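Aim 2 progress update. The chain analyzed this quarter is reproduced below.
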Amino acid sequence: MQTLEQLKRGELNGCTSLKLSADMETFPMEILDLADTLEYLDLSANRLSELPSDFSKLRKLKVFFCSNNKFTVYPEVLGDCPLLDIVGFKANHISQISNHAIGKNLRWLILTNNMISVLPASIGNCHRLEKLMLAGNRLTELPDELQHCRSLALLRLSANRIEILPDWLLSLPKLSWLAFSGNPCSRTPDSEIEAPLISYDSLEIQDKLGEGASGTIYRASRDGMLQDVAVKVFKGDVTSDGFPEDEMNSSIEAGDHDTLVKIIGKTDDPYESKTGLVMELIPKHYINLGNPPSLKTCTRDVFDNNLQLSNFQIINILTSISSVANHLHQKGIMHGDLYAHNMLIDESGKTLFGDFGAATRYERDHSAFSNAMERIEVSAFGYLVDDMLSLYTSKDQDTFYHALTALKESCHLADVSSRPNFEQIESILAEIKSRNLV
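Predicted structure tokens:
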């Protein structure tokens, strides 16, 4: 991170990337002196409430993050920045967005945790838009114009006030990752599903294993238990995916499956009023299958350059995930984040799947709505198949490769209702395996 003093002394002239967090209340006008080169600007974690009217002088700016500030109005001047590709205004106080403020070039827009009740109709002009983050606002409906965003692949609507999802949303051809928990249109948790309550005082918290948007995972020992456990302590705030309580309820309601990380119980931290999940500890020999999307890939995971998988490993991964996805949808749960970065594998391709932060519970019946819910997630599975093919060790496009390519294409049919469901996908994968292609 650079400093405000460096900027004012002219030491940053010619830079392409700038990140400043200095408790600033006003926009440093010296930033405009970088107009000829600046492409990435991050002014998050300050106290800014407006941008200068000539902000659009930054004609080369592609990425702008301004989260955790004091904005109440989404800056209209952003609509005049021709190359702006990614914009993030998470955790401000934004309640107003004018039509002119939304630039047509946007590919990724983050407005999580604000006070937005209405999206401008101009959002429909963003034909490049792939990722739209709207969790934690006051939306009661989506503008019909959004249906023109035919490239939209990931949509976060959780923790709003939406009563009905529009029919056109369920037919968007690229939509693959959808979350809408914490709205009137999502299903409330099954009151009969409970998990044992484990006293927080009975857990001895040890080292931190990882941290995500919704909480922190620790290793812990437990009174009377020989094996350590993992404890996920939720932060209690609205995340980019929704409410932590919805994640906890979906994790519990998901039940048991060989591919799911096993839930042992839930716990409460009486000292900080935080809830948590107690889970089986994942064996050390498991590795992450993928890494989260980058700014460049937007909605697609990235992978280790050295990672290669055999057909045996790939079929095991895909069979595991199709099975657990079928299991979840039979219970009326859409995971919402079916990505390789939420999967762990061992050397054989045995897979563990977790992280229900974006999960949504919906009414499971044989209606067009519930069928569409499953087939939206089938599209995400199709991208997973595509990822696996990119990691396939064979240098030749053999019969196995062509069989999976055909499956991928069926998962991405533009007509959502024509895609296979997960039960059919399981059968297709079993047929591939039985034909001695593995």
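Residues 156 and 179 are 5 Å apart (CA to CA). The two ends are 49 Å apart (CA to CA). These observations will guide the mutagenesis experiments scheduled for the next reporting period.
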